[in-house]
């Protein structure tokens, strides 16, 4: 294994002629167009390429789970058909189940299907950056790694690369491995196989989980309808695994699957040596760019992407199953059900929540307390978890840039010049005029995988990741916050309330689990003290140690959640205090404004009264005196106006003079 220090571009890994290979998102289905009406008659319920109509299995949303949408408004659709794969596997005989589990798919198929959170995935895939194969988050690059694959779904990530033969015509291979009925009525060359024909061969064509049907009811119906016929055990197993590839692990936007996947199942005993987890991750990377903008459906194993997001930055409609701490893989511990209260949630709402997600709540090392012995894929693949790798999946080669996410290893992230990246990987979906061996033609790339890639060197002198974050924000200044709407205060409050409700629910569940663990631990200790048989005592002691470790982990998680809850409550109290202060400031501003308005009105009325009084004063002056004698007589109180003698008047009969001071004060 090589070591990897500063960022270097592996341009030498590309072979001659690779520059002409173009990346396309969807599998070419040229042979179906050539087949014309014959193929359409055989599989009439398949619509255009990438679409399913009629009773085809379609995506993983049932009619009950998919909310009604306005006409003309598209929405992302996941192409996986998990319900049928799960029920089909359970309905198989036990011998076939054991054989499939040995191939490396047992852990994955033990996980109960759950609801696919379409708005969450739609908002997440918008952040995919093709040049660095990473999600551009406000807090830095985030990439699903092989460690996530091994812990979450249990697929093997160490082993032989998933590469093989690519032929011009797969007619003879399909007849040999699956049966002649899959090529009947089709013109050669045959390069892809209709997925609907695989389920039709065993009597499950058109099987979909009904709106009100539970998983157990659906499984009962599938078990009753499953008809393996007189096929051999190997052919029945190949048909199921081929359907598993096309509808779950390596799903595309098409209703068909390239026949080169079937060639991997020629020797079922050797199928378990492949690194299926690495191939699944590489296949997902190759389809994320095409599903981001040009298509309403998305390929790849999207449930893995959904649970990876829930694990690293917890948000959305999910809970962990009660008493699920011992379930393996970790995906089996999650339960995601459609929530009618948020059935109309749009991708814009999730986008806003991602933009405002607290950076300190991102979980970089979510598997710190897990034991490798419980995860065979983790124990075997750990040497690859800190390596720069090339992920191979039948003609596609995608780069895993571990140097961008060393914080998942518990290290500080060094600064990296993101714009200087080259295009190491290459992906293509095309057919060839002649047979070829991709592994032999790209020998150095295959050797690079088998040697374990290049190990990332840790920079121990780093104190924090501030230099990286500064360069990161400068490089992606226009992509860190995708929501262009101004978040209203009410929506911010709802986000806080939702996070607080999730924390309280998780805290209650953990407290119940702690109580259960305490009771179990007390029971084990009591049985050990009362003197059980000596042969059972070591097992009891081991169980007590395991329970004590689980109890300690649960206590630590409870303390962590209580701290987060207190922080959220303090943040909400601060917000309420700021709201009250703003309301007081607004009230004081309104009082001052109303005082100024009232003052202006009073002054305006006073000026109007003065103007009217000034207009009436000259008229009163001209009419007060009839002649000059009246003016002269003003000095003699005994002379009336006109020169007449004023009679004596009694002061008792004189009316009192009006007091004008009170009126003036009232006017003022």
From TrEMBL:
Positions with biased composition (Basic residues): 1-14
GO BP term (any one): meristem maintenance
InterPro entries assigned to the protein according to its UniProt record, in alphabetical order: AminoTfrase-like_pln_mobile, MAIN-like
Disordered as annotated region, ranges: 1-74, 562-586, 634-668
Compositional bias of kind Low complexity: 36-45
One Pfam entry name: PMD
Composition-biased stretches (Acidic residues): 18-35, 46-64
Segments forming domain Aminotransferase-like plant mobile: 107-472
Composition bias type Basic and acidic residues, residue spans: 657-668
Name of protein: Aminotransferase-like plant mobile domain-containing protein
Source species of the chain: Colocasia esculenta (Wild taro)
